[in-house]
Amino acid sequence: MGPYSEAVQGDAAGTFFIKTHGLGNDFVLVDGRTKVFRPQAAYITQICDRHRGVGGDQLLVLEVPQNAGADVRMRIYNVDGAEAQTCFNATRCAAFLWMQEARKTSVILETLGGRIEARMADTENGTPRVSLYLEPAVTDWQAIPLAGPLKSHAGSLNHGLLSEPFAVNMGNPHLVYFVPDYDAVDVPREAAIVQNSTYLPEQANIGVAQLLSTDENETQLKLVVYERPGILTQACGSGACAAAVAAVRSGRTNQKNFRVFMPGGALQVALCADDRIILTGDVAVAFYGFLPDGR
Ligand SMILES: N[C@H](CCC[C@H](N)C(=O)O)C(=O)O
């Protein structure tokens, strides 16, 4: 698509992909708008495998939108082949590629988790940045979904240093655990146990967060997210929004502007007066190439 596929046309064969990332949360993107691309779960796992495939946290497939008013549809496949409702870093990356191709500065993307508006944001240090304009977070236990109210069963989601989570649905389910010392937590080990709790009928993305500072300018959080289906990622856009919402609703801050530091870099989250959320951060293209056909 856009400048990338034009650069490699010729006698190359196979399915063209673009490897793109938001702060190291990385994706293999295939354009399925003209030629339908519906890969089997095993093939998705192989594409995302960092040793046997391209490598990525998810596979993204662009499609023609199903509803009027959207510019493009994006399917998001987790590494086990299951379709995720949403992924904000993936949405920022796909939005960037679509806007480059269409020579526009805004786009409406359709995902399983709903419609999302994206716009080009001001550039910092020459790196392109994309903002998403998001619907308010949902926190009812039925919508997360949890198997029951959090208060009555919080103990079943406590493990080791992870206790008293805040549950947020951003289009996909998140649990956010605030801890006093993020470095003291063995995140993959402890998060895997809560992620597989029977109290989470659809599992959840597990965020471990630490409040770094809060003043009149912004609140700073440190965050790492152990995503479904059991991968620790460099960054997570929906997790950053969930952590900001959890920080306010749990009384840790009243500040609405956040900078969320994750292993791959920082995202900015702004909580608006009407509860809508603006998420902003870098996007990048790493490389592009062809998947062998015949799967
Ligand atoms: N990294 C993504 C979230 C992916 C969530 C996915 N793993 C799920 O099962 O919901 C983000 O930037 O929002």
Automatic annotation (TrEMBL):
PANTHER family xref list: DIAMINOPIMELATE EPIMERASE, DIAMINOPIMELATE EPIMERASE, CHLOROPLASTIC
Active site: C87, C236
Localization annotation: Cytoplasm
Family of this protein: Belongs to the diaminopimelate epimerase family.
Name of the protein: Diaminopimelate epimerase
SUPFAM superfamilies listed in its UniProt record: Diaminopimelate epimerase-like
Biological classification of the source: Bacteria, Pseudomonadati, Pseudomonadota, Alphaproteobacteria, Hyphomicrobiales
TM region(s), chain numbering: none
NCBIfam families found in the cross-reference section: DapF (TIGR00652)
